[in-house]
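ok trying this again, last paste got cut off
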Amino acid sequence: MKECKNFLLVVNEVKDADLKYSHMTEESIKKHGGTSSLVVGLDPEKIKNAASGVDAVIVLGGDGTILGLARAMVEIQGVPVIGINLGTVGFMAEVVVSEIDMMLDRLTKGDYWLEERMMICGKAGDKTYHALNDIVVAREDALRIIAVKIYVNGDYFDTTEADGIIISTPTGSTGYNLSAGGPIVKPDAKLLLMTPISPYSMSRRSIVFGMDDKIRLELLEKRKDIENKAIIAYDGAISIPMKVGDTVDIGVSEHTFSIIRLDKSSVYDIIRRKIGG
């Protein structure tokens, strides 16, 4: 692979409040003959300006920071990302602090490979947002389930009563989808997963769709004597209110997210190590 010499560091200001690990990474970059710039936070405009001409982006935070960066970089294609895990599980942020020097040694030598991860987008009204993990329609009221009508490629598919519905990418299969009982799939697979959240049924299961399928979720009126409300959440960060009759159209985004990989372990071995079993 290409030898990386110019880096952008994007830092989670909560996970690295005193920039201790950021400065450690900058020193290692200098030691390996590279240059770097630093952005604190996930401001899309700052990241877009700073990413011009860099060979790679190094994220200091956790998987949540990487998800935020994927949305911030949605119009910046061709710049790969690697994460230093300052969080918990770290499926995407595979490097730990003790491995920073090793990481820079390999990146500057071109000793790595890339995984292109598909993203999804959801349009509600005149607003479109992108997500790397999932788009979720979920109840706003903590004590009431919602009813959602599902269309696939313009045709009626099903109506589900549940706490919500998750539309997940393969990358997101180990996130909320997994917690809701959905399957784990290889992160570089090309498909969509639909998993109900606590469905009011004994027979509801996850469903796998192709990457060309278009899914529409419509919020239905469940009871006339109460207000039926929900939210549309993109990667658990952006939340859009949803009322009866509102829809969100979900499909594969034209944008992808490029992740640098160093670990040669199979995805199944990584999953076993991260979540046990």
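PB: full thing came through this time. The longest strand covers residues 247-261.
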